[in-house]
Amino acid sequence: MTNDPFSQFKAGQREAWALFSPMATFTTPPAATLVEFAAVRESDKVLDVACGTGVVAVTAALRGANTRGLDLSPVLLEDAAANAATVGLSIEFLEGDAEALPYDDGTFDVVLSQFGHMFAPRPELATAEMLRVLRPGGTIAFSTWPPDLMIGSIFSLLGRYLPGPTNAAPPSQWGDPNIVRQRLGDAVKDVQFQYDDMVMPALSPKHYLAHMERTAGPVIKLVQTLKDEPGRLTQFRAEMELLIARFFSHNRVRQTFLMTRATKC
Ligand SMILES: C[S@@+](CC[C@H](N)C(=O)[O-])C[C@H]1O[C@@H](n2cnc3c(N)ncnc32)[C@H](O)[C@@H]1O
Fold first, then answer.
1. Domains of the chain listed by start with CATH number
2. What pLDDT score does 167 carry?
3. What Gene3D superfamilies does the database record attribute to this sequence (predicted)?
């Protein structure tokens, strides 16, 4: 086992995200929104970073793009390959890390990430890598969770109970347009932002929380960590329910996300 805290963190993430597949039903509609927003064209070479079950990669491939996908979790990649096979597509899915992409410089016309690269703990590395594998004039586009809305607030709550490695950037910083502009810097031009909603059906905030505890990597990890501290676990669940209730109405949980698109200089 390595002593590098970032490698240890990623090993934990790799394990915790393995149960994400049922959640991909809900990330499927936003995948079409992102592919549209990025204006993916037939024959474009497209990379889906942190692809999970491949919802973005398959959506782009169904538009005729030549798509590849990469993720930390081999379990999710098996589902991604099955999703591609269902529509007779052969997409190369690789196990790998957004902070060290196994592709040559300038390989892709479009680099996408939906709720994915934001989990890499060192945004400067993930940004540099995504821009490196993109050709000049190509499009980088991603969807992320704003810090002040539901999923961003959940990240803050999780961070209070289970901090990541020192110097790891909180994922929701990627949902702040000012920080996004700063991170992309002058490597890009024509930065555009757009908000949209991911709506999840749920009978109550408690039902939604139970679903997260079965499928959402960081929540699964925290609940495991608190298994011998029932008092803190109860407190965490109570705080989560209150937070979710702010975004719950008519059996729906509304999760607003930010899309960013830019052109590499
Ligand atoms: C919320 S899921 C999103 C999956 C998919 N993009 C979607 O929209 O359904 C987050 C994904 O990020 C992946 N991930 C987390 N950290 C990563 C890293 N450093 N490099 C590559 N993938 C990573 C997880 O394995 C997981 O599949």
1. 5-146+165-197+257-264 (3.40.50.150)
2. 85
3. Vaccinia Virus protein VP39
What pLDDT is attached to residue 97? 98
Say which amino acid occupies 149. Answer: L
Helices of type H across the chain: 5-16, 24-37, 55-62, 74-86, 123-132, 150-161, 177-184, 205-215, 217-225, 230-245
Q: What is the position in ligand 1's atom list of the atom closest to the CA of 113? A: 6
| Strand pairing report for 66-71 and 45-49 | parallel
User: pLDDT (tens digit, 9 = 90+) per residue, 200-234?
Assistant: 999 999 999 999 999 999 999 999 999 999 999 99
Centroid of ligand 1 to alpha carbon of 118 (angstroms): 8
Determine the distance separating the centroid of ligand 1 and the alpha carbon of 76, expressed in angstroms. 9
**Is the Cβ atom of 52 under 6 angstroms away from ligand 1?**
yes
What's the CA-to-centroid distance between 41 and ligand 1, angstroms? 24
The number of helices, as runs of H, and strands, as runs of E, in the chain is 10, 8
Ligand 1 within 6 A of CB of 208: no
Cβ pair 84, 66 in contact under 8 A: no
Predicted confidence band at 1 (pLDDT cuts at 50, 70, 90)?
low
Whole-angstrom distance, CA of residue 83 vs CA of residue 10: 25
